[in-house]
Amino acid sequence: VNIEIDEGIRVAQQLISPDVLDLIPISDVVSLGEVAVPADFVGKSLKDLDLRNRMKVAIVAIRRFSVGLDEGGNTVSKERVVFPNADEVLEELDVLIIVGMNESIDLFKDL
To answer: What is the pLDDT of residue 2?
Structure first.
């Protein structure tokens, strides 16, 4: 285990692809990633996007953020995790948790 090298790789990936919030290797060829939803995907369902067939990545969860007001009228950010079905429609502030082959994730993050 070499924490400095692993963290250095992580920081470099974030600098190269700011829309990829995190990338965790599962094996040498498969990773789990956190990716900001591409603008072109907003308002579309996962079924319509067909990412599993088109891009060979699976959306395993969505971190969904919303902004509201508390009792004092202060702005509060709320987060919830959604385990989506095919009919889930993506929203502007969503963060997609994806899994796939590293090449597929590289193609996805270039959208």
So the answer is: 63
Round to whole Å and give the CA distance between 36 and 63.
9
Could you read off the pLDDT of 59-72 as tens digits, one per residue? 999 999 988 888 88
| Of 91, 85, 88, the residue nearest 38 (C-alpha) | 91
Which tokens sit at 43? 């308002």
pTM of the model: 0.75
The type of residue at 29 is V
Which residues have C-beta within 8 Å of that of residue 77, sequence separation ≥ 6? 65, 66, 67
- In whole angstroms, what is the distance from residue 82 CA to residue 21 CA? 18
